[in-house]
């Protein structure tokens, strides 16, 4: 079974997995963020680690806009058009051409809320939403329109799907879930529904970079063929099986991005993978809960992926 078939088999509940696919991600040095250098580095990493799909890192972060200081200032949010994404789209085109015959090619997509946080700073964005959500929504609409240009550009280039990263529902964020439902979720869904209509394999990533979650309920109806999130939920430690049941779809994860895969010896990493695999759901992909540190030894990742491939349930 080739890598494309191995990953797509996750979506057929009647087809057993020939082996457990695995994938881990990290950001490369800035010199590899654009051009042929970015294409080559992604391919080098993919082939060295033997991961089961190509995940294209998103490096065209929205720039800070110092003029956005108050909720009313979100009306000044500029609409970044396709030319803003040209460097990113060139990397996508190169990797689709080079890697699609052997593996699925997925593009990282940051949510409109996350891009708004890059624009004004995450604390300011949260404060603005609490103070005047209607004004902030003007900016969210502009950001969503811009990101749709990126999404459609990637789809036109032939990507197989997206790794859709979302935030906004963390326990530290909004006391009133209505603010999430009004200012975050509709813009997430606008992009994700377009992706769901157009792509064969998408991963929903509920990102805990800023803080953890007490409740994942707001995300349960988000599209995504597979879900990737932390196993920490409030004071509880979930299992992969519990997450798969909660979201009613296959789960990707199992390893802590700052844990044994970073600091362990090969035998310790192999044991950690075996421990994860023993309790994994039937449809499962090994991964981490988020992006790995950039200075990790790639051989550690290769060891974890090889252990997943070799494990037989």
Gist of the model:
With 313 residues, the protein is α/β, with parallel strands linked by helices. It has helices at residues 3-8, 35-49, 86-99, 112-120, 122-131, 133-157, 177-183, 185-198, 240-247, 260-263, 266-278, 298-310, and strands at residues 53-56, 104-110, 161-166, 203-206, 226-229, 232-233, 236-237, 251-255, 284-288. The chain has 12 helices and 9 strands.
Secondary-structure blueprint:
Layout: H1 3-8, H2 35-49, E1 53-56, H3 86-99, E2 104-110, H4 112-120, H5 122-131, H6 133-157, E3 161-166, H7 177-183, H8 185-198, E4 203-206, E5 226-229, E6 232-233, E7 236-237, H9 240-247, E8 251-255, H10 260-263, H11 266-278, E9 284-288, H12 298-310
Parallel strand pairs: 1-2, 2-3, 3-4, 4-5, 5-8, 8-9
Antiparallel strand pairs: 6-7
Helix pairs in contact: 2-3, 3-6, 4-5, 4-6, 5-6, 6-8, 11-12
Structure description:
With 313 residues, this protein is α/β, with parallel strands linked by helices. It has a single domain, classed as TIM Barrel. Helix content is 44%, strand content 12%. It contains 12 helices and 9 strands. The chain has helices spanning 3-8, 35-49, 86-99, 112-120, 122-131, 133-157, 177-183, 185-198, 240-247, 260-263, 266-278, 298-310, and strands at 53-56, 104-110, 161-166, 203-206, 226-229, 232-233, 236-237, 251-255, 284-288. The strands form 2 sheets. The chain has a 7-stranded parallel sheet with strand order 1-2-3-4-5-8-9. β1 (53-56), α3 (86-99) and β2 form a beta-alpha-beta unit. α2 (35-49) crosses α3 and α6 (133-157) runs parallel beside α8 (185-198). The protein is globular. The chain starts with a helix and ends with a helix.
């Amino acid at each position: 079974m080739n890598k494309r078939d191995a990953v797509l088999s996750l979506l057929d509940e009647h087809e057993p997995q020939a082996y457990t696919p695995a994938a881990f991600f990290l950001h490369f040095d800035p010199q590899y963020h654009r051009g042929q250098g970015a294409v080559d580095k992604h391919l080098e990493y993919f082939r060295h680690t033997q991961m089961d799909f190509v995940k294209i890192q998103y490096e065209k972060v929205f720039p800070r806009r110092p003029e956005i200081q108050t909720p009313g200032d979100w009306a000044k949010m500029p609409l970044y058009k396709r030319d803003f994404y040209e460097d990113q789209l060139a990397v996508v085109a190169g990797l689709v051409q080079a890697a699609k015959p052997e593996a699925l090619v997925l593009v990282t997509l940051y949510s409109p809320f996350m891009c708004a946080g890059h624009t004004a700073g995450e604390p300011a964005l949260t404060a603005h939403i609490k103070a005047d959500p209607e004004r902030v929504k003007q900016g969210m609409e502009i950001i969503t329109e811009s990101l749709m240009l990126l999404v459609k550009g990637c789809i036109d280039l032939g990507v197989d799907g997206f790794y859709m990263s979302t935030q906004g529902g963390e326990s530290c964020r909004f006391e009133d879930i209505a603010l999430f439902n009004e200012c975050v979720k509709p813009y997430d869904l606008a992009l994700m529904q377009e992706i769901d209509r157009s792509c064969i394999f998408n991963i929903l990533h509920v990102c805990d970079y800023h803080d953890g979650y007490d409740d994942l309920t707001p995300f349960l109806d988000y599209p995504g063929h597979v879900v990737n999130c932390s196993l920490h939920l409030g004071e509880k430690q979930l299992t992969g099986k519990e997450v798969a049941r909660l979201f009613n779809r296959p789960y990707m994860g199992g390893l802590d991005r700052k844990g044994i895969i970073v600091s362990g010896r090969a035998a310790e990493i192999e044991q950690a993978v075996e421990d994860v695999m023993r309790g994994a759901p039937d449809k499962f992909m090994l991964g981490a809960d988020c992006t790995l540190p950039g200075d990790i030894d790639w051989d550690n990742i290769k060891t974890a992926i090889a252990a997943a491939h070799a494990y037989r349930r």
